[in-house]
Amino acid sequence: MTQMTSRAKQAEATKNRIYQCGCDLIRKHGFDQITVEQISKAAGVSVGTYYYYFESKFDLFSEIYKKGDEYFLSHVANSLTATEPLEKIIAFFDKYADFNRLNGLDMVKKLYTSDNKMFITKGRAMQGILSEIIEQGQRDNKITTNLPSQEITNILFIAARGVVYEWCLYDGSIDLNQAMKKTITLMIYGLVPG
């Protein structure tokens, strides 16, 4: 395994500092209300340094979703211990609820807007993981084949985003994991063939 040089470590630390400062500003003010100049100032770097690591303000926003996909690939994909596909789907969305809570209510409120098209970006790892679970369930005749796995994935994410949005509306006063489990459980039992 190759060790990072001190210069590479410093570069990674700078990028992470810019990212964290950007996230903090998004939490406080919303994505549209902040500028690259504000993010750079908060991170203690020049605007040029910001642009060295991120092509635009939107690139920083995309990084939030990239980190979400990385989280699902590294922490969720291989940690789902349920053997039945329907139980695995419930466990997947429990992790989705956990991930939203980890991001914090203020950040999630800023992300859940109709202007945010990252939720519907095709080819994201998070959706791929769920599609694989559904495809396995379809092969095992545990999940209906009346709809393609990608369409089922989209429908389940629509429901999950609705639960997270409700959590935001109630300022985090509902139990997100419990509400997610109830909603997803009700939905997936409509997927059982027969």
UniProtKB/TrEMBL annotation:
Domain called HTH tetR-type: residue spans: 12-72
Coiled coil: none
Keywords: DNA-binding
Domain of life: Bacteria
DNA-binding annotation, residue ranges on this chain: 35-54
PROSITE patterns linked: HTH_TETR_2
Annotated PANTHER family: ACREF/ENVCD OPERON REPRESSOR-RELATED, ACREF_ENVCD OPERON REPRESSOR-RELATED
Name recorded for this polypeptide: HTH tetR-type domain-containing protein
Species per Swiss-Prot/TrEMBL record: Sporomusa acidovorans (strain ATCC 49682 / DSM 3132 / Mol)
Classification lineage: Bacteria, Bacillati, Bacillota, Negativicutes, Selenomonadales
